[in-house]
Amino acid sequence: MRTQARGLARAVAGQVIEKAVIARSPWRKAPWGELILCGLTPGSDRVEPPWPDLVVSCGRRSALIARAVRRRAGGAPLLVHVQDPRGGAGAFDLIVAMEHDHVEGPNVVKVATSLHDVTPARLAAAAATWREPFARLPRPLIGVVLGGPAGRAPFGADEGAALLAGIQALRRASGGGVVVTPSRRTPDAVLALFVQAGAQDPAFWTWNREGENPYLGLLALADRLVVTADSTSMVSEALATPHPVELFTPPLRRAQRNFVDNLVRRGLVRIFDGAWTDPTPRAPVDATAQAAAAVRRLLAERASR
Fold first, then answer.
1. Are 90 and 188 in contact (CB under 8 A)?
2. Residues 227 and 168 in one domain
3. pLDDT of residue 57
4. Do 20 and 44 meet the contact criterion of CB atoms below 8 Å apart?
5. Helical (H) or strand (E) element with 231
6. Is 261 inside any structural domain?
7. Which of 76-90, 203-217, 222-236 has the lowest mean pLDDT?
8. What pTM, to 2 d.p., does this model score?
């Protein structure tokens, strides 16, 4: 969630200050007023003047804190919230919600993917860093991004083995190379399967969480991306590139299934099955730029009053 708020703020403003604010019980349950700001944990950043022109929040608890900040600031900051605030939607100047979210209103902008800070500039820098290390692998290069279990949706050794079998079939069909990167949520047992596969195949490399993470380099340089569909953020960041994206779909939560189904209907992704298909050209999908344009219009309107 911090990545989404940070990505939008950076796309809008030249100077951005990121604050991590955590409220303790019972203040964290205070739905109204500034009481929630009275119970911040010792590790929280301070909420104090000078007040900004724009506050970007993400997540239900952050929505409460953002509203409290505006009251303390005398109503000055523009309030923008990412995701469904789950109440009090009218308090925000703009809400950026996913298309499958159930929040509606004149202050709501719907986007197909989540916001992030994977920009063309960051991808270009990563490409320069990783082009030489990846050069030893044959082309086409298949980039694989591993997630993990989410809530009651499992992603363990069985799911990992099914994905690995499909990746190996895709590699044999294409004759290309494979680069795999795990997330923090990837179970050790799943990562071990891919590391072992790399030990037996010189064209198959898995980052084992030692040294620099090749994630951005993989997004920048892969000819095809296979992403586990459990993470909206990982899927959205993959779609910010021009590369074809395929989603491995273990059992998913309902909201995540709705997200994936919407992308399939739009023709932005295909479901991964291990078969090689000719890629369909598409432009990068950048919901962050769409949301940033809406925020800039609101700031311009306020400045012209």
1. no
2. yes
3. 92
4. yes
5. none
6. yes
7. 76-90
8. 0.89
